[in-house]
Predict the structure.
Amino acid sequence: MASPAKAKISTKILPMVDLKDIRKSFGDLEVVKGLDLEIGSGEFFSLLGPSGCGKTTLLRMIAGFETPNSGVVSIAGQEMTNFDANERPTNMVFQSYAIFPHLSVGDNVAYGLKKKGLSKNELKKRVDDMLKLVDLEGLYDRPSFALSGGQKQRVALARALIMQPKVLLLDEPLSALDKKLREQMQHELRRLQRTLGITFILVTHDQEEALIMSDRIAVMFDGNIAQVGQPQEIYERPVSKKVASFIGIMNFIDGEYLGKKGQKLHVRTNSLGEVLLEPHQMPSDLKLGKVTVGLRPEMMTVLYSAKEKSEHEFKAKIKNVSYYGDMTYYSVTISSLDGDISISMRNTAGRHVYRIGDEVRIGWGTESIVVLG
Amino acid sequence: MTRQPRALLIFVIAYLGFLYAPVILLPIFAFNDSAIIAFPLSGFTTDWFSWLMEDESLFRALKNSLIIAVTASIISTIFGVLTARAMARHQFLGKQSMFGLIMAPLFLPEIIVGVSILIVLMQLGLALSLWTVIAGHVLLATPFSVSILTTAFNNLDRSLEEASLDLGENRRGTFFRVILPLVTPGLISSLLIGFTISLDEFVIAFFLTGTDPTLPVYIWSLLRFPSKLPIVMALGFILLVTSLILLSIFEFYRRRSETLAGGGQISENK
């Protein structure tokens, strides 16, 4: 039903992180169930999924804090499955930041370099440069219990990056921050990654975060990878209902795949009529019979004036209105469908916000439909 | 600060007064120029303290007490570290019951404990000595050590160790650079409280001491001689001041231990 979860970047370029058939169990509980993944050098890659899907365990196996029960972990072309964490060219930013409370900011950042035999001046210079990079200039002597959450996060980042790892691993680094700070840090992390060119692997349950920051995303459920791809690909062409509903909002409508009609594919929806779709709008291995059809809320539009036309149209009644300032989400009911349909509209000039009970016309285009198995 | 109700203030004053008024008598009569412990006061003198300095058996008793206190606090702290580490890092059957068992001496009447150990020792044919007292004091101090160090270890975020390893340090380096500095305030607290408990302890020492009395036992024996009472007062005063100093240091380190090993969120005004 779903397309293969494995996605090769290019057979010619060696992946920075290569995971083959990785399995991990804790006692009786199987947490990672035989997955393959390749992550390229210089990629900002996210592992996205709900709590308990195995993404953090996977990250820890790349870092070296857990050893897989079977499978091979290769980093920078070298097999490192059984290497200890301190032997790998990876560094991690922990969810709790793990800042050493008895050391100052500067000593925290310098921690990993202390054993490298640098001169005192050289060490201080490197730390100062790194502090500047993460916007903590001048805080060398600040004791770490006097830091805010956002500052601690940057110390953790600096401390890891100063080691010049080949791969930076981030375990839900932004989950403890408030919304505004989180958004700011998302952009900063992205900028940082682009400047440094290091491979970043981020674990998050926040799909918006993954979409904003990543070059590619792996969506995980229950120890398996459901889909790997670029953000746009995953959002617009989810392979399954589960992926579709995890990323953004999706309207699901029952339908039936009736077969080919020339180059196009004939699909009947149980409430919105029949359509002829392009091959890329559905999984390549789809069989005839029952399907689920998906339509994103922003792909439909409320037709404000009688003159506005659309390829397809239906009448609906407003059941609920959610006003977000820049957008309004409408929940509408239509006679031929049991459930509600969600539609989002940008609040541009001239568009008034409808009220509950209003009757409206909704328009949509054939190219907006995606068929899920 | 919000206004406390008047009644509460009066209660606190009365409570503290009741608790500490008898203790105030110590310095009063330690410096009083009279062999009789009674009002009115006769005048200031430090003679009793000089007598103290010349009493040989007193110094022997003090030496015994110090040896016992230092040894008992070290042993109980070691037990505390081992127990706390096991409790914080490992899961095993009977963990809760074992913890309860370790804490039990806190709740047992000391006389019962003292007599029981004495009987056991007699059955085993062991002679009473400093070591029997040490054993008894370790029994008393260990619950405190375990309690203090369990808190310290529990507060030690596991990811701190992982972070150290991730940054290239090995296990040994991690222990000396991360774990030890964070647990040290707890260690010091445990040593200090073990020492204080042992130094002041009378009941168990009384039962388990052989020919070498501890200081509290020696003081008790002095009570038979009323003329020596002011010397006892002087001694008591010194012990009081020493205990206060030690406990203040202990409290300082205990607070520091809480702040550090916790690695808490946004800084608070502690």
